Amino acid sequence: MSGRGYFISFEGIDGSGKSTQAHLLAEHLRGQGRDVVLTREPGGSPGAEDIRRLVLEGDGDRWSPETELLLFTAARRDHLERTISPALDAGQVVICDRFADSTRLYQGLARADLRDLVDQLHSLMIGREPDLTVLIDMDPETGLDRALARGTGEERFESFGDGMQRKIRQGFLDLAAEFADRFVIVDGNRQIDDVAADIRQIAEGWLP
Predict the structure, then answer these.
(1) CA 138/CA 21 separation, integer angstroms
(2) Which helix (H) or strand (E) holds 7?
(3) Which of 18, 57, 143, 189 has its C-alpha lying 20 to 30 A from 157's C-alpha?
(4) What would the pLDDT profile of 82-108 be if each residue is shown by its tens digit?
C-alpha cells in the first residue's frame, strides 16, 4: 500500500476548522497543477458514508466505544480500499479530513481505554499512516461552540460536552509528540486566511 502519491491528514477537535482548511489546501494545490483527492472520515466511499450516518447521528449512548471502534475501522477499510489507496497508487495527493488518529483518541482514550485495541485493529486492517498530519490546535470551548452552531445533525460526539473536548485536545497534542515525524501543529485561534497561509507553507515544504 506504499503508493507513489502523498497522503495528508487533518486532525483537531470538533469545530477547529479542519474541513475548511482541508478544502482550502486542496484548492491551492490544484491551482499549482497537482492532482488532488479531497476526502473525509468517517466516509469517503459509498460504504463508509453509510457507516458515517450510523456513528455521527443519534443519541450519545447509541453505541458502546467497542462497537464504535469496529464501525470506524470498517468504514476506514472501505475508504482505504476504494478511495485512498487507488489515488495514491495513481500518484495523486490525498487530503483527508480525519484519519486513524481520531479513532486513537475518540474511541481509544476519550470514550474508553481502548488504545491498545485501536492500534491492533489498525495494524491488522489498515496498515498505513499519513505522510503528513496537520493538527489544528485551538481553544476547546470555542471549538465546541462552532461545532454545535453548524446544526448539521451530526453532533453526536459534540453532545459529550466541553470536558471531552479538553481531553481530546490534550490527546492530540500527545499524539503529535508520539508521532513527531509526521505531525505539524498549527495555531487555529486565528483568522481563516492566516491559518491557511501557514498550512500552504507547511505543505509546500513537505510535498515531494
Answers:
(1) 14
(2) strand 6-11
(3) 189
(4) 999 999 999 999 999 999 999 998 888
